[in-house]
Amino acid sequence: MLQHFRAPVLTVFVCLGMMGVGLTLASVASAQDEPAAVTEVAEATDAGAVDAAEDAAPVGWNAGDKVSDLSYDDSNDYAINTLIMFVCAVLVLFMQAGFAMVEVGMNSAKNTVNILAKNVMDLAVGVLLFLLIGYALMYPGSWIAEGYLGSPGSFISRDAQIEEVNGEEVWASAPAYSDGAYASNSADFLFQVAFAATAATIVSGAVAGRMKFGAYLIYSALLTGLIYPISGSWKWGGGFLDAMGFQDFAGSVVVHAVGGFAGLAGAIALGPRLGRYTADGKSVPLPGHNIAFAALGVFILWVGWYGFNPGSQLTYSGAANAEATTYIAVTTTISAAAGAIVALLTGWTLFGKPDLTMALNGVLGGLVAITANCDRVSQVESIVIGAIGGALVVIGIVLLDKLHIDDPVGAWPVHGLCGVWGGIATGIFGDLPDGVESVGAFIGIQAFATLVICAWAFITMGGLFFLLKAIGFLRVSPEEEAAGLDISEHGMHAYPSDAISGGAIA
Fold first, then answer.
1. pTM over 0.85
2. How far apart are CA 208 and CA 229, in angstroms?
3. What mean pLDDT do residues 364-384 have?
4. Which of 37, 422, 474, 463 is CA-nearest to residue 214?
5. CATH class for domain 14-51+92-157+191-494?
């Protein structure tokens, strides 16, 4: 009887423990004038949406200023930026549906409910822990260890709040400002938390079919609450990698490589699915049960990427910002297309047939590779970056197979390997940032920062996965795996025919 209660009790204990830490930090934050700094994601404003009461803010942008001091144009810019960032946040959030469909389609039908549950809980657990812990760690107003670990804080402060003083409307909390009109703190949080959920859900596909649901929830909580925000702060929070000149516009490394290398650690710790390799080491493909779902998922992800990359421009009002935002969409599209074509041709050459799954992963590889540099490369360079990303996806899949590392959806080739390529490609093709004198120096910075972030994700998550394995809480039993995680972990079927005929859909 006790064995049925151990998994949920341990999972709830860990998740509630992290939320308890976050609530404790909230009491610390509430004693400050403002909670953690309101923040950002990309080159456009690395330190993010900083406190609206910055001394440098002009009249109309400070707490206590008259609302009428804010010009109509500035107010309109703030509104445009806020609403467009909100739409981009929704697009990135919708990518969760794309990941779910890709993972479901490329895995056995008997694990469908489990995969969907993991994707739902990635978002649900991630939102709360990012609010309570992660957001402040990733975009700190101050540092515990300068450039390495941010100060604690929880929740977000509302900006653009009005009060009446002596018959005049004044800003009780001024609109967010960062070298010009910015978006609301609320829109910024929604945008950032969608990125955090993306980093977490990448791992779901790599560990599909054999990981305990409770163990996955523990992983998801730690990644979104601690691991991703800490390494993210090193770049987007103004940390030590940012100070070196590291560039990662929308997260090839900061988001995708973190998820990819965490997934690689999980796949290694878990070992292959039952039947994936014979006793003498021969590879046995375990094809997905619904390629239509997988294709739909990739199309959803492609559309969602227009929130991910163009949205990372962060400020959209004005002619220059509007053009930059749409140009980013162009380079993103070009790279995805090149990745699909090259992956299909590479797979066709190696395996003798045009494999749709290779093309689908090639789309994603091209998207991941361009994410770090979509704002700073030419259209021709976008083709090259996406094409190499598409080839790397196929090479990565073959490499994992040779090493007997079972990654059912190709999460590491797409997000890990292509994330690394995106970081390096930024140094090769991207415009030199201020303070960097040569392409060689830029490549060196990109390579070092990429190595640091990938090692952080792989080592920390590998430590967690092997700890869970040591206490017998990582992988389901062979009998549960053979029956399918839908039944063994959730007690339900995804398809009615399974319950009627005992598993008609393979």
1. yes
2. 24
3. 98
4. 474
5. mainly alpha
